[in-house]
Amino acid sequence: MPLKALIFDVDGTLAETEELHRMAFNRVFADAGISWFWSRTVYGRLLKVTGGRERILAYAAETGTPGIDAAALHKAKTGYYRHAMADSAIALRDGVERLIGRALELGLALGIATTTSRSNVDSLFQATLGMDTLDRFHSVRTAEDVSIKKPDPEVYRLVLEDLGLNAADAIAFEDSANGLKAAKALGIRTVITPGIYTAEDDFAGADCILESLDHLVTPQAGTAHCCLDMLPTDFH
Ligand code: XBP
Ligand code: MG
User: Fold this and answer.
1) Ordered DSSP codes for 155-199
2) Which CATH class is domain 18-87?
3) Which of the listed residues 115, 155, 158 should we mutate to test ligand 1's pocket, taking the one with most ligand atoms within 8 A of CB?
4) Does the record bear Hydrolase in its keywords (predicted)?
5) 216 falls in which pLDDT band (50, 70, 90)?
6) pTM for the full model?
């Protein structure tokens, strides 16, 4: 089946953003006078709950904390994340920029299917590839577009609808088990690049697991053939 589109997850796949998210959560908790602090260990566990607002609600339930306004805290967190991203030296993960560039050269469609908010996607592109590159994506679907987040496949369904394509036409790029489940629920071939928080996830069912997307754009000894075989023959 000829490849027509690449669909990217954002957090953990395009860039290692979760530490910035964690910092932003902790900052708003402190500002609001809430005595929560999400360590890396706690946050790693909480990441199984997709969506920042849902994560706050889950932690409030788990700790039996009353009176938490999750929507307000999450809004403040998104504002803080925007500023923190602008001040950060965040970099895209290896191979991401080249893969996107090569896909554009070959005329493949590009999509984003993420659980995070549109504002956070914009912040990341402003800090890295620029909004001109984001404008070249044919579909950008985010938290605001769905009624249920990953591992539900709704966000991937919306991207495929936008692109006018079938699951067999695309490859999804994900870093987490939740993202893999979402893409695979529709039968989309999925390449996994495990991230700092998802290295221990269960990636059973993935079509390919790579240390980084650099292994895809710069094939080297050890690159899984299943993965290279998905790309157009003139890709490299
Ligand atoms: C990852 C997430 C997000 C981020 C925080 O989404 O689960 O919730 O951790 O972002 P993905 P928000 O990998 O699908 O991009 O606070 O905006 O939810
Ligand atoms: Mg992710």
Assistant:
1) HHHHHHHHHT--GGGEEEEESSHHHHHHHHTTT-EEEE---TTTT
2) mainly alpha
3) 115
4) yes
5) confident
6) 0.95
